[in-house]
Write a sequence for this structure.
């Protein structure tokens, strides 16, 4: 019995003691392994994220146009930034973006939190229906945008048809009309991303220990008080995390909306990213659009910083 | 005591509230499924049915949308079609009913194949590099660790169009424009943030004692990683891979701006499937259905890990 154990241990040691080159590799110090493991990731991110970012910063101070590669690049200082910040159009696009971000967040928080509270009642089949509800958020935003244009067709689309079943408003030209287009993108985004907020709220609700409600029961708290003093404070960090993340994503929104309305009609749904694409890849004002990109990036980076802080708070 | 718990169960809701809550959730779920169901149905409609007023719920199903998705056709005179003799296949027959002749396959299969190659290629790279980095970040002392981790996450925050401007110029210089390799590298870089953060969470959950025991047994650190830690990470790696795959599968902005012919994936292609007189909606719907189906299946398989994936591992249930 004991000889067997010793033999097995000896065998294991023998196996674990390779020779030659493999020994040298296997015998790497912890520090060497750490660098070996981390550096490919860092190198790739430097090459594909940081180097291009520095290049963008450089270009933002020039008059470069990418469709005329032969032309000399001229340094024009901060003129691109001055033009951007002084332009009324840019504020229009920013307003469209703000409208989109604020309304999508407001609607999704209401719906998402409501759904999470309902699902948390643990009715029969809750997990099945939760999975069904989650499906839209995993789909490709561009493809979602494409098929919502079909649903939004004023005469033949099912959206207008269903609305007219409940209210006799006539054909709704969701994409073509200046009043409705900003709401068309809000509705499609809400359809797609409410599950995200719901899922995080649900995680928050499930983190609340039962004894808190039991204690409240003893103190004769009513339903509203329980919600206000126990549920909401516990769910709020999760909710804020969700809103911050989706807020950043919607601030950068491009794919779904460009397929849905491509910024129209006029420029009513011309979000910042859509205009950026137009300036950079249709008008080829590379220098100018680089400056625009930097402004957007700084904004997102600031929000991202807050996001990571919130993340760490939720974690602890 | 026992009476009061029976009367107001604190954590469990009463039967009627449960029923009511369940009903409302089911209604939401059904309403939110209408767009998807409608698109799947449209894939089986004929072009006139797809733009009928009022919208047709009951219709005669046809495979025309799918045939149009996979073929390119040209309009011919009835005399010419007559001269071809009887149709060879069921899809020939279907197309000829519209006075058309199939001239060859469409570009859809190629785009779909590109999506598969680029999706799996970038997922493999992102998960491979991410596993190594996550292990190192979890187990070793690395100078400026928190800053590096934040840097890795922050790369995900950049607006894609802003990144695309210099990448476009860089790829033009390097000859990587419109190549699968260029897009794979780009998606890998974007997915690395997710894969490092998610996988680090999974490594953190594996007790260090396992490796320490292995090292005492005579394993080197590297052997302990390969033989002890990696097998424990299997489920985490699988979940991470699916998230990376879904991102690469769904991505649109980079694909639109950096690919055109050779390496274009399905998302920029589906919206521009043109029939006679505008968009061919049944074909678009058929393409959409085939494109979304894998993601729906993965979502169902992955439902317990979803929360973790969408919060970069911050929330774990």
């Amino acid at each position: 019995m004991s000889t067997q154990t010793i033999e097995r241990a000896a065998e294991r040691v023998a196996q674990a003691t390779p020779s030659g080159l493999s020994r040298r590799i296997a015998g790497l110090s912890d520090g060497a392994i750490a660098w070996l493991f981390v550096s490919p990731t860092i190198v790739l991110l430097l090459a594909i994220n940081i180097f291009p970012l520095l290049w963008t910063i450089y270009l933002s101070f020039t008059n470069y146009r990418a469709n005329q590669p032969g032309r000399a690049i001229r340094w024009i200082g901060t003129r691109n930034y001055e033009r951007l910040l002084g332009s009324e159009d840019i504020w229009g696009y920013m307003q469209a973006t703000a409208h989109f971000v604020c309304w999508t967040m407001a609607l999704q928080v209401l719906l998402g939190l409501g759904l999470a509270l309902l699902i948390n009642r643990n009715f029969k089949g809750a997990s099945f229906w939760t999975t069904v509800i989650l499906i839209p958020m995993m789909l490709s935003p561009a493809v979602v945008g494409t098929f919502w244009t079909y649903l939004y067709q004023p005469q033949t689309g099912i959206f207008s048809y269903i609305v007219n079943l409940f209210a006799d408003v006539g054909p709704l030209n969701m994409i073509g009309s200046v009043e409705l287009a900003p709401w068309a993108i809000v509705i499609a985004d809400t359809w797609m991303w409410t599950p995200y907020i719901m899922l995080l709220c649900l995680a928050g609700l499930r983190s609340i220990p039962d004894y808190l409600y039991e204690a409240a029961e003893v103190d004769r708290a009513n339903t509203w008080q329980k919600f206000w003093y126990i549920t909401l404070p516990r769910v709020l960090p999760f909710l804020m995390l969700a809103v911050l993340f989706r807020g950043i994503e919607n601030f950068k929104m491009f794919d779904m909306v460009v397929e849905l309305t491509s910024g129209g009609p006029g420029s009513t749904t011309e979000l910042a990213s859509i205009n950026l694409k137009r300036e950079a890849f249709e008008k080829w004002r590379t220098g100018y659009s680089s400056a625009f990109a930097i402004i957007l990036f700084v904004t997102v980076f600031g929000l991202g910083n807050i996001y990571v802080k919130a993340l760490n708070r939720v974690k602890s | 005591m026992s009476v009061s718990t029976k009367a107001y169960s604190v954590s469990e809701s009463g039967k009627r509230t449960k029923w009511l809550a369940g009903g409302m959730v089911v209604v939401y779920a059904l309403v939110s499924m209408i767009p998807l169901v409608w698109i799947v149905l449209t894939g089986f409609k004929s072009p006139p049915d797809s733009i009928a007023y009022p919208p047709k719920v009951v219709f005669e199903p046809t495979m025309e949308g799918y045939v149009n998705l996979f073929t390119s056709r040209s309009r011919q005179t009835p005399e010419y079609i007559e001269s071809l003799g009887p149709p060879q296949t069921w899809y020939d027959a279907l197309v000829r009913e519209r006075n058309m002749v199939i001239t060859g396959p469409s570009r859809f299969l190629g785009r779909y194949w590109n999506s598969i190659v680029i999706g799996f290629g970038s997922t493999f790279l992102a998960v491979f590099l991410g596993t190594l980095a996550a292990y190192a970040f979890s187990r070793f002392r690395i100078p400026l660790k928190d800053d590096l981790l934040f840097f890795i996450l922050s790369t995900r925050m950049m607006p894609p169009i802003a990144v695309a401007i210099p990448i476009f110029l860089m790829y033009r210089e390097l000859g990587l424009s419109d190549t699968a390799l260029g897009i794979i590298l780009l998606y890998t870089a974007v997915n690395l943030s997710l894969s490092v953060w998610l996988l680090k969470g999974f490594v953190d959950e594996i007790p260090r004692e396992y490796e320490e025991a292995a090292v005492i047994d005579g394993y080197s650190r590297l052997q302990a990683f390969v033989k002890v830690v990696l097998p424990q990470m299997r489920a985490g790696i699988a979940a991470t891979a699916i998230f990376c795959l879904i991102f690469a599968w769904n991505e649109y902005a980079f694909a639109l701006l950096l690919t055109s012919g050779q390496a274009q994936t399905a998302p920029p292609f589906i919206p521009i499937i043109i029939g006679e007189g505008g968009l061919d909606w049944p074909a678009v719907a058929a393409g959409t259905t085939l494109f979304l189906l894998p993601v729906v299946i993965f979502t169902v398989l992955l439902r317990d890990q979803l929360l973790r994936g969408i919060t970069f591992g911050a929330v774990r249930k």
